[in-house]
Amino acid sequence: MTLPPQPLSPLDGRYRSSVGALGDHLSEAGLNRARVHVEVEWLIAQTDRGAFGSTPLDDEQKRALRAVVTDFGQPAIDELAGLEATTRHDVKAVEYFVRARLAELGLDGIAELTHFACTSEDINNLSYAVTVKAALFDVWLPAFDAVLAALTAWATDARDVPMLAHTHGQPATPTTVGKEFAVFAHRLQRLRTQIVGTEFLGKFSGATGTFSAHVVADPELDWPATARAFVEDALGLTFNPLTTQIESHDWQAELYSRVSHANRVLHNLATDVWSYISMGYFTQIPQAGATGSSTMPHKINPIRFENAEANLEISSALFDSLASTLVTSRQQRDLTDSSAQRNIGVAFGHSMLALDNLRRGLGEIAVGSVALEADLDTNWEVLAEAIQTVIRAEVVAGRSSIDDPYAMLKELTRGKRVGQAELVAFVDSLDVSDGAKQRLVALTPATYTGIASQLVDRLA
């Protein structure tokens, strides 16, 4: 029995509500709309300078042409699909589509300026730059910022909540819950700065990047300056003056590597929070109607963080593949980039899905005070660091003659449980000043957090 047509990707099926906004930019339709946009703006740019005796379009004509882009919808999508079925070439279909609109608007006289001196990749590279830039800033970045805001709120709200740290999975010098969230927020802030600083490059120099057809058509025109003005002023990109037939895609590799890096930091966040939930350091807030297990009624599973973990791995794998594949093109052009770039939206989609789950997951947990306090109270031996450090300072100051304080504390605590009473008695017996003893006796695992709370203020 055959099912009705179904979405093959879970991004277009199960998870569409979380990632659908990306489709406005990184779908086939979004790409085609951008292609039409580039073709229309190139027409306007040429007529503005009166290319080959053409007359500049008036404001109403420009508005009508640009409306072809702003009104781009299902009829245009269907028409382009029909044209491509005949041309077997997606960019040629766009050219015919634009020519048809010119005819409808009574602008047949400039029809031959459509796609003038362009190779398909002149249109494609600019269209991808336009769509990726819009998708990044309009869709992905707001989702990323929502997670960053949630982390910053956690850092601020839990800045004073002490937590036993674990290095190598073993009890270590205590920290605070807020400071640990601040670490992730700080890492992601740095990466955000790098991501938004991406240079979105575009080429517009013909079949092999030499402006050959351009110069034959008009030997007197400064074509590189004309191309630069078009790419930068009309499209808001940065002109790449030296390319083959394709824009070299280095900016894409840089962007995707940075987003992949951000994914991996978020993956670290997901696995850490998952671990803290399993330790009871965070409790999960029951969601009305939700089921954790089909057989164990008591369970609340950390599914938001598990889902995020999986999707971040898929996203980074795709971004890593794109970053490594796109920077190589045989001689002046091959088509490997064409197939690869059709998966840009998939890579961003899995990252978006993870961001959505992380944002929601961070809102569905609370500080597990019972477990946090219990672990601190049963690991007094973590104060061994404090004691041996104070003794060493006392020795240097001439207030103690203890030999090898580290070895002394190692003998007392390594691999052992040492309680408060034992440590207090040990400190009282030490050859150190009264002031040092007072500081050490007053110390507890919960108060041995240094300036963890103040470090949260380092967040920009």
Briefly say what this structure is.
The protein has 460 residues and is mainly alpha-helical.
Describe the protein.
- This protein is mostly helical and 460 residues long.
- Helices cover 60% and strands 5% of the residues.
- The strands form three sheets. A two-stranded antiparallel sheet has the order 1-2.
- The model has no long low-confidence stretch (mean pLDDT 96).
Give me some keywords for this one.
single chain, 460 residues, mainly alpha, Fumarase C, Chain B, domain 1, Fumarase C, Chain A, domain 2, Ribonucleotide Reductase Protein R1, domain 1, 3 domains, two-stranded antiparallel sheet, 20 helices, 6 strands
Please name the CATH topology of the largest domain: Fumarase C, Chain A, domain 2
Q: What is the H/E string?
A: HHHHHHHEEHEHHEHEHHHEHHHHHH
Low-pLDDT parts are none
Count of domain modules: 3
In total, the number of strands is: 6
CATH class of the largest domain: Mainly Alpha
CATH homology-level superfamily of the largest domain: Fumarase/aspartase (Central domain)
- The helix content is 55-70%
What is the approximate shape?
elongated
- Averaged pLDDT, please? 96
The spatial strand order of the largest sheet comes to: 1-2
CATH architect. name of the largest domain? Up-down Bundle
Strand count, sense and barrel status of the largest sheet are: 2 strands, antiparallel
What structural class should be given to the helix and strand makeup?
mainly alpha
**In percent, how much strand structure appears in the residues?**
5-15%
Count every helix, treating DSSP H or I runs of 4 or more residues as helices. 20
Q: Give the radius of gyration.
A: 31 Å
Measure the end-to-end span.
58 Å
